[in-house]
Amino acid sequence: MSYKKFVYFINLFFLLGATLLTFFLILAGGRTTGVLKNFYWFQASTSGFNSAPSVTRWYNYNWCGWESRGIAVNCSSKMAAQPFSPRDNFGSSPLMPSTFLNNRNAYYYLSRVGWAMLLIGLFFLLITLVSVIASLIRYNRRTAALATAMSWITLFFITLSACLYTGCYAKAVKAFHHENRDARLGPKNFGFIWTTVFLLIVNAICCTIMVATHQRNEYIYDRSFASTKTVDSQTPTPVPTNGGIPSSVPVTEVQQSQSHQNHRFFKKLRTKKRTVTSAGDEPDRVQEERVYTEQNVPVVS
Question: Does the keyword Repressor belong to this entry (predicted)?
Answer without folding.
Answer: no
